[in-house]
Design a protein that fits this description.
- The complex is a heterotrimer of chains A (251), B (242) and C (282).
- Chain A has a domain at 53-208: MetI-like (MetI-like fold).
- Chain A has helices at residues 2-25, 41-49, 51-82, 88-96, 103-116, 123-141, 148-159, 164-175, 177-193, 196-202, 209-219, 222-243, and one strand at 246-247.
- By secondary structure, chain A is mainly alpha-helical.
- In chain C, helix 1 packs across helix 11 (251-281), helix 3 packs antiparallel against helix 8 (190-218) and helix 6 packs across helix 8 (190-218).
């Protein structure tokens, strides 16, 4: 009997965070012990209208995530294509190092150099810091892509007269488009959701949506935290609704 | 004329190529017979400039190509796998080298069309590689190589992954193309019959060393070429049947 | 030329941050870089303090326990759901709502846990309405509690939907399908096949990803920062506290901790990878 309802219960469980957050986002107050908060649409308008609360952090996060995802994916793809050969295994181990420690600790370790280079508390600084995770990630993701088949294709293009740049752009990029897209989406989400590193390098100056959600939650400002959270999960949620059904295995 | 002088290649302590000399007249195919592991792929890749060699030089009509980058040598390497670009149609695959050379669109259109017609692939021009058969893919790979009128074509067991029927069809097709485009080619194979069918000149490669034969007769006479054994085999079979 | 550019980019974005960061941390911790040390001079005192204080070790132990138990909990829930879901899943596609949790970041998950489980949160309100508890103060403390139950629950909530998708997709592969057919032709019941064939394969196949997730939880920062207790804290928080310490004297100890932690995790990951590959070979 229970088994029959498992998918429905799962659906409820998976959607619960979004339902509760949406409810709280539209509420004026949530007096204990009433289960449903009181509805207040003015708060919503106030939030969206105020540049410092809603839209500005959303725009900062968007610009940051777009730049970080495109740059990391391109640099990672480019370097992983050209740096093949005997030292490859060493390079792969090097790429694992950033993942052996929390991003925030990684940031704390090189913060000194960022201060020296005036990169601390700046958008460029946060972008560069996030690339320190994004580039090795893409390099690792593409490490299995350059197999024998891709390399013979590269040889064919080479003897036909294509330079490394042409080969990358005309031959490999179109062939690797789907993996590249996956990398961009993953890196977009990484940057969009990143808190510790952004906060540490940004020194609280760079107010991304994630940084704002943290601040409001810590302040106990439930309604505003819920509104900002809703904006934060909006892009991935829309993407999922657009894709609708996802194939998980090849028949 | 393609001239190779004293090419040597070492991997670790082992010499894979031991001072190889050869020459191949323009418009001719030099068939090289060799078992797998004899160093034939290394030889071709060295000539194409894809792997560095310890000593030796590559000349074409007296011009030294040894230090010219592979993409500028005009020497095309064709392997057993057709290695077509999977995201391009047959037409675009053939057009690739011309586009890289920034030829104008109308000339590309004309050359590729002629090439596809002579390859018998015109009706398949819009198909992607995964919609083509093994033989068709290899034809596209030939077209892609020949359309840029390379100085030399290096063929590394090009029909190795095809079934027996398609293989002999492709051998006949190769002869036609070689004549039509006056190809200067090194054709490497482990198949004796294929070497005999495709070559104008003959050589044998063994353990990193190459022996050139002055004529088909000399090649057939040589005990290591295997021609005699083959003739004996068929004669014995005939005698047994009688 | 192009290759040189690739090398330069690799050095700039991979080699420099890793090595410069780690050498800076080591330099400060050994007193070679002056920072609250006065004049730079080699010293082991910060490392000695770190080991004798025992705070880092306790914190590493706690973090490993937290991460391992959260991964185990999430994996067990996902395995438990495998059988009822596989029965109701004829095709190879999953409906959209399975992917919704993947779009929820740690910070929003923490906010949700907070709103649902705090003593004035949703569950507490429901409990009052149902007459199970008289008021908010009788609701068990799950947020900012000493054991980190709220932190643990949030990690389980983040990990299990992801594991469920992974497990379902591995169970739907051709290979598992063939093994299922073979097992059933040999007379095994579907429950037996699930227990003895599907579950072990699914766990084995996804072991590397479980380890990656484990290492990700080890580095957890914002979730315990919002929901954790004060007594025992996960290692990232302890290190950042020391580094940002108000007394200059604790900063080098913070860097010693950071260097030790990085090397410790590298060794641990290496060990885990070896362990898995050996089990795979067996």
């Amino acid at each position: 009997m229970m088994r029959k309802y498992t998918p429905w219960m799962l659906m409820l469980f998976f959607l619960a965070p979004i339902l509760l957050i949406t409810l709280l986002a539209f509420s004026g107050s949530w007096v204990y012990p009433s289960i449903l908060p009181s509805f207040d649409s003015d708060r919503w308008m106030e939030f969206l209208g105020s540049s410092s609360l809603g839209i500005k952090p959303f725009l900062i996060s968007t610009v940051l995530a777009v730049l970080v995802s495109l740059l990391s994916a391109s640099i990672g793809f480019f370097t992983s294509y050209l740096l093949t050969g005997k030292a490859r295994n060493w390079l792969l181990w090097l790429c694992l190092i950033p993942f052996c420690t929390a991003p925030v600790i990684l940031a704390a370790n090189f913060q000194y150099f960022f201060i020296l280079l005036h990169l601390s508390a700046s958008t460029v600084g946060v972008i560069i810091a996030q690339l320190f995770i994004g580039v090795p990630y893409t390099f690792l993701l593409f490490s299995t892509y350059w197999n024998e088949e891709q390399l013979t294709m590269d040889t064919a293009a080479k003897t036909l007269g294509a330079t490394p740049f042409t080969r990358l752009l005309r031959v490999h990029f179109p062939a690797a488009k789907s993996l590249f897209t996956i990398a961009v989406i993953q890196l977009f989400l990484f940057s969009w959701f990143e808190y510790g590193m952004t906060q540490y390098i940004g020194v609280g100056q760079l107010k991304t949506l994630t940084v704002e959600v943290f601040k409001y939650t810590q302040e106990g400002n439930t309604t505003v935290a819920a509104l900002a959270s809703l904006l934060l999960i909006l892009p991935p949620f829309i993407a999922i609704l657009v894709i609708r059904k996802v194939r998980i295995a090849h028949a | 004329m393609l001239e190779i002088k004293n090419i040597s290649k070492q991997f670790g302590d082992a010499f894979v190529l031991k001072g190889i000399d050869l020459c191949c007249a323009e418009g001719q195919t030099l068939s090289v017979l060799g078992a797998s592991g004899c160093g034939k792929t290394t030889l071709l890749k060295s000539i194409a400039g894809l792997i560095p060699m310890e000593t030796g030089s590559v000349l074409f009509n007296g011009q030294d190509l040894t230090n010219v980058e592979p993409e500028k040598r005009g020497i095309v390497y064709l392997s057993q796998e057709p290695s077509l670009f999977p995201h391009m149609s047959a037409f675009d695959n053939v057009a690739f080298g011309l586009k890289v050379r920034k030829e104008d669109a109308s000339s590309i259109e004309k050359k590729v069309t002629e090439m596809l017609q002579s390859l018998g692939l015109w009706e398949h021009r819009t198909k992607k590689p995964n919609e083509l058969s093994g033989g068709q893919k290899q034809r596209v790979a030939f077209g892609r190589a020949l359309v840029i009128t390379p100085k030399v074509v290096l063929l590394d067991e090009p029909f190795g992954s095809l079934d027996a029927g398609t293989r002999s069809e492709m051998q006949a097709f190769y002869l036609e193309l070689a004549k039509m485009y006056k190809m200067t080619a090194l054709f490497i194979t482990h198949d004796l019959k294929e070497a005999l069918v495709t070559g104008d000149q003959f050589a044998r490669m063994e353990q990193g060393q190459l022996t050139l034969f002055s004529s088909l007769e000399a090649f057939a006479e040589d005990p290591t070429s295997g021609v005699k054994e083959e003739i004996n085999f068929w004669n014995n079979l005939k005698n047994d049947a009688q | 030329m192009t290759r040189t550019l690739a090398k330069a980019l690799f050095i700039l974005f991979v080699v420099i941050p890793s090595f410069l960061g780690l050498s800076y941390a080591l330099g400060v911790s050994f007193g070679l870089i002056g920072l609250g040390n006065g004049a730079p001079s080699f010293t082991l005192s910060h490392w000695e303090v770190m080991f004798s204080e025992g705070r880092l070790m306790k914190s590493i132990g706690y973090t490993i326990l937290l991460a391992a138990s959260a991964i185990a909990g999430a994996a067990l829930i996902a395995l438990g759901l495998l059988s009822p879901l596989l029965k109701r899943m004829p095709g190879n596609t999953l409906p959209w709502f399975y992917f919704v949790p993947l779009g929820i970041p740690p910070i929003v998950a923490a906010f949700f846990t907070f709103s649902a489980l705090a003593n004035t949160g949703l569950l507490s309100r429901i409990a009052v309405k149902l007459g199970m508890i008289p008021d908010a103060s009788s609701f068990p403390i799950l947020i900012n509690d000493e054991l980190g139950i709220g932190v643990w629950l949030t990690h389980v909530m983040l990990a299990f939907p992801f594991f469920l998708i992974l497990f379902l997709s591995s169970a739907k592969t051709q290979e598992v399908h063939r093994l299922r057919e073979t097992a059933s032709s040999l007379g095994a019941s579907s429950a037996y096949i699930l227990r003895k064939v599907i579950r072990p394969i699914v766990i084995r196949k996804n072991a590397p990803l479980l380890i990656i997730w484990f290492i990700f939880v080890l580095g957890t920062y914002e979730i315990p920062l919002l929901l954790g207790g004060q007594k025992i804290r996960p290692v990232a928080l302890v290190i950042i506290d020391k580094m940002r310490g108000y007394s200059l004297a604790t900063i080098p100890e913070g860097y010693a901790m950071s260097a030790f932690y990085a090397v410790f995790i590298m060794a641990l990951s290496f060990l885990l990878v070896k362990l898995i590959s050996r089990r795979y070979d067996a």
